[in-house]
Amino acid sequence: xxxxxxxxxxxxxxxxxxxxxxxxxxxxxxxxxxxxxxxxxxxxxxxxxxxxxxxxxxxxxxxxxxxxxxxxxxxxxxxxxxxxxxxxxxxxxxxxxxxxxxxxxxxxxxxxxxxx
Length: 116
Known about the structure:
This protein is of the alpha+beta class. The chain has a single domain, classed as first zn-finger domain of poly(adp-ribose) polymerase-1 (2-Layer Sandwich), CATH 3.30.1740. It has helices at 62-70, 81-86, 95-107, and strands at 15-24, 29-30, 37-38, 43-51, 54-61. β2 and β3 (37-38) form a beta hairpin. The chain starts with 14 loop residues before the first strand and ends in a 9-residue tail after the last helix.
């Protein structure tokens, strides 16, 4: 386990500890970011930690995990990935990330606002 050292503008509780690892899904799960099912046999990121005395665990599908890495969305609170994407301008991303975002949006149509 490691200590959490990130600082973010959200009014979030202090992280006492956290651990992340990749796991192979043995039973169907739900991604904490996009809400899509993580099927049996797929890889996902498992994060467990304690924030202000509250123990929590999060499962993140590979596509959302890759998006966080590619866009440097470290320290975005769990469940806020789509909000973070929506708050940024397309000009903030290079062409590779823009193409990746298109693939992510195509895979997550339930999160896309039709007005954009």
